[in-house]
Every structure is written in C-alpha cells, then in structure tokens.
Amino acid sequence: MIRYLEKSGIFILETKNTHYVFGIDKAGYNRHLHWGDKCNAADYEFTEISGENSNNSMLDEYKQEITPFGSTMYRECDIKARFSDNCREISMHFENYDIDGNTLKVHFEDDYYPLQITLNYTVYEAYDIIKRSVTLKNTGTEPIVFDRIFSAEFALPSEKPYTFINTNGAWGGEFIQTDTVLDGGNLVFESHRGASNHNAAPYFIAHQNADENSGDVYFASLAYSGNFKVSANRDAYSITRISIGMNDFDFSHTVLPGESFCAPPVYCGKAEGFGEMSRNMNRFCVEQLLPKQFNDKPLPILYNSWEATGFDVNAKHQTELAKIAADMGVELFVMDDGWFGKRNNDQAGLGDWFVNPEKFPNGLDELIENVNRLGMDFGIWMEPEMVNPDSDLYRSHPDWAYHYAHRNADELRNQLVLNMTRTDVQEYIFNCLDELLGKHNIKYIKWDMNRPFSQTGAENLENPQMYSYLHTMAVYNIVDRLKARYPHVQFESCASGGGRCDLGAISHYDQVWTSDNTDGIDRMTIQKGYSLLHPIKTMRAWVTDIAGINKPCSLDFRFNIAMQGSLGIGGNLTKYSEEDLEICKKNIAFYKAIRNTVQFGDLYRILDIEKDEVLCNEYVSTDKTESVLFLAANGTRFYKKKCNLRFAGLDEAKTYRFTLDGTAYQKGGAYLMHIGIPIYVRGVDYNRAIVLKSV
Ligand code: DGJ
Q1: pTM value?
Q2: Which of 224, 312, 562, 568 pairs with 588 at a CA distance of 20 to 30 A?
Q3: Does residue 306 have its Cβ closer than 6 Å to ligand 1?
Q4: What separation in Å is there between the alpha carbon of 588 and the centre of ligand 1?
Q5: pLDDT tens per residue across span 222-236
C-alpha cells in the first residue's frame, strides 16, 4: 500500500512488515525518514537540522532518496549532469506525484534547466520488497550529459556501524561471503569488467549482529549485469548511506532533447534475520522476477558434456553419454562447447555458429534425434558475444569486435568481445540463434561469456562510455526476443562459471551456472553465498568427477550438495562403474521426489559449514506438509558433533514422519523445532538427506 500524507508531504510505502518513509520537506528537499518496522503514520515528521556553519553543511547531514550533485553538499551524490552551458549543478524541486496501485512516481524538476527527475517505487507488499529506480527526462532543446546515474540511495537507521555482507570471489571461488564493518569512510563493491563479474555482487546486505533468525537486515540488489557500483559510506555524523547503480567508472550518458533514460531497477527490503531475507527474495524472484515461461515449472535434471569431452564432441561419443545419462533418469542432455566452426580448442571458431561438418557429418539432427529417442530434451552451448580472431566471422567483420584503431586488441582465452551495441552485430547473433532454434529441436541454450571487456571503442556510438549498459541491454533484448519466439526454450546465463549471476540476468534467463568449481566441499560455501539473495531454483549445480580437490568426497556426498539447487550431472559417464551408475540412478530418483520442495520451498540455513563444521539446510514446502533436510560434513573434530538436530520452518501443530539412519520417527513440528533429535556427525564423508512428510 502507498499513502501520501498531504499535509506533511510524506509518502509511506507499506509492505507486510515494514514501512519505507520519505517526503518533501518545506524547503523542497527530498528527505528519507524511515526504513523498518511500522510506526504510527501520524508520527512521521521531518526533523530540522540546526547548527549549520561554514564547516558543517546542512545538506551533508540530510538523508535523501536521491542526491543530486552541487550546492554545499560534499558527500557522495547519485546524479551528476553537465548542461549545455557547462553548469554542473542540479537544483531540483518537487513537482507532483502519481500513485497507480502499488506504483508511485515522484516527479521533480530542475529550477532552471529542462531536466525532469522521477523517483519510481513499486511495492511488493506480500514479499516485503520494494523496487526502486530513477528516470531522467530532457525536456529542452540541448543535450544533457550525465557523468553519473545511480539508481537509488539508501540511508540506514542506526548511528552505530553496520556490517556489510557481500560475496567477493574469483573464478572457481564465486560467492564467498565477506563481512566488513564500516566504521568510517567508504566501502565499495563494484565491477569494471563490462559485466557483473565473479569478484563482487551488485548488492548490499547491512546489519548489526543479525543472524539467520533475528536482527534487522537491510538489503538492496541491483538488477543489472553490466559495470555496477555499490558505494557505502559512514560519515562524521555517523550516518550510513549507500548508493547503488551503474558504475560511474568510465561512464557517461547523453540524454538528447525529448528523450528519457530509466536507470536499472534495485530491489530492496528489510527482514528479520538473514533467513527471512533469503526466503523473501527467493519467493519474490520465483513469482515476480524470473521469466514467466519457466518460473513456476520445476527445472529438469540435465547432463552437460563439458567435463567429459571438452571440445572433442561428435555424434557418436555424445550419443554414448546420452544413453548412459538417459538410463540414470536425466531429462535434458546439453552438448557444451566444440560443436561449431573450426572449434577444436579455444583458439578458433567463436562467431561461426554453424555445425562443424567433420564432427557432425550428418548434421546436428542425428544427435538430437538420438537424444530425443532416449526420452530426453536436447540443449546446446553458445558464446554469442564473442569472436575468435581465427574465425570466418572475424575475417569478414574485424570491425565488429570492440577495438581502437591504433591499439592492439587484447585477447583473453584467444577471443575478443563483439560490439553488441551495433545493431548489425545484434541481428547477426539473433539470426544465428533464430536459425539454430528454428531448424532444430533444441530446448535449452547455455549462453556463455568467457572474458571481460577491453578496448571498448565503440565508434558507432556518440558516447562509447555507455557501452556496458548498451551491451547488457542488447544481450537481454536478444534473449527476450528469442524467448518470445521460442517459449519452450530455456536459457542459462553462464560467464566462465558465475561471472554473470545477478538479478538482471535472472530477470531474463531461467537459470545460471554458479561456478566452474564443482568440488562438493567448495560448493557448500559457494552455494551458501549464492542463496543469500538469489533464488534457489536458478542455481545450476552439477555432480562431476571432481571427487574433492583438497579433501575426498564421495559421489553420494556430491549429489547431496548438488541436489540443493537445480541438479545437473557433468561427469564422464563412460568411465563410471556399475556401482557408480547405481548411485547416480538412486540419487536422481530421489531428487525427482524432492525437487519441488527444493526449487519452490523455503530454505532454512540451520548449520553453516564455515562456522559449525556441519552444513545443515532444510527446505520446507510452502504449505509445510513436506520438507527435506540435508546434512553434510567433511570431518568434525573433538567428538563434539553429537548434537540435537533441531528442524526449522515446520508447522508446530503438524506431526511429521521420517527415517534417519534406519530409525523411524513420528513427532510434532513443535518438538522437532524446539527439542530435536540426537545425531552424531562423524567421518570425512558424512551426508544425509531426511525427508519429512506431515501425517
Ligand atoms: C566456461 C563454462 O563455465 C564451462 O561450463 C564451459 O561451458 C566452458 N566455458 C566451455 O568453453
């Protein structure tokens, strides 16, 4: 619900459990007032700031929804413009507002220049989530150049320092949680790489001593896969503010007369504990954000050939793998890299999206038909945004790759990035995919992207510093167009593992490849980080032959971990023993029985592998009639893991039945959550999955 208190000029955005409050004060400034538990609406008011002097600017003390550059404001700002006469100050006043259902638009105008600024809010009441963004409109006759356009500013309520959680990783170690106390100064999480990247996430989670179940947690996540910036600051007045949006590093955007620009949206919320935060975001993403074609359907169990065959793909070997995969119960067979152009290694072929005639002399359909005959759907890998200099595409269109005329184009993995801001490049890529999907019975595209950008000299653009945004939008647009034309095709976002896993990607793709690291032990940490603010069903997790990089872990263990997302298999099945194959069959059948609970249920993180030596995650169906609890540990010390396993998220009044280590239990939800059952976690390969059903 959205309310405007006319007399005081205050807007109240109300969700199930929270109020988000701001307004326009008497002097015309936009002022942030509250984010958190609900208060009496009539009590909200602006408090005046006194004691301004030459060293203390009043504007520096304001908490604002959006801060324009200029005047006696010396802290971080969100919008920076250059008008045609080189004036760089924005002085905005409130004009009016529109409320349309759960959407609010608050319009401001510059006092002199023809610039309109609109703050956009949409309230998702049931999820305790609010969407924010900002729209800039040039109503004049001269261009306006923007050097910074952030999507939103947030201010936190307490004067005490907050701890900021982000995931700072790298290839093979994505989503590794970091906790940083911001006592003073700036804390920045960002990407300069062109895409959202492995190193940091485009969000913030801020709290003071919160845990899974309690404590105020504030969070906001940018739905954007380009260069981003999350810039938090705690100032001399002990105010913690965060600005979030497109990175202003190497950024500039010109809004032409009559045109407008809307910055990427941010989804924010306040929750009680990290658990509630993740569950709210999970449900919100599944029900509201994910593309509608597959959001409410369980994702299939897939097999992917990459780790088994590398670039060495052909119909015979892929069919051999497909037979074994089908026999195990796999539903979708995905052929990875190597099927096109002259792609025998990573040195050639990218860009030539035509079936390699030596590897597939009878075309692709021979393999697809084999796979379909085995009862599986067929999927294929592509890396549409890239080109190898050794490719027909590059030879005929060298200018299609980002480059500067008098600089060498740096290759990474022997490839260059295509300039997707060009419409001819967009059409080429769309047509390649359109032809592939139109001609063949393909149900899945794994869309990969294996290098960051460089030499981004898009000379087709008036302002090449907008490349990251335009490139990202072009990618989204192609995926959307293909989805509209082929609604039965699923899309996966992959970027050398988890280099493009963000709410922007999740708004267009049905799932993501979380990490190339499929080690069961490392995955416990990676998947925990992913689960913080991303929907579980989008997390592709494969069981492969990496039986523990540092510590051994069995096939059962690897399944136990991979089943906590959308299960995939990626090993070289032709080398599996009869016993291994039976383990796969058993686990796949088990996953089919529980996958609705995992993919659509609520996740309760009960024990943390980093802190507790044991991983314990419980997924509970939304009606609380079913639950599956996973336990895993890779060695516990000092005999201390004899403990009571307390379940979570159950219905206190319901009775549940389950079996653990041969013992059958029937207990009430209240007993299971408050007292629990004794367990003894020992050994390097401990893994259990317990299915609870209400009686
Ligand atoms: C990187 C991906 O993360 C892998 O899964 C695989 O698809 C390779 N690229 C193929 O080149």
Answers
A1: 0.97
A2: 312
A3: yes
A4: 23
A5: 999 999 999 999 999
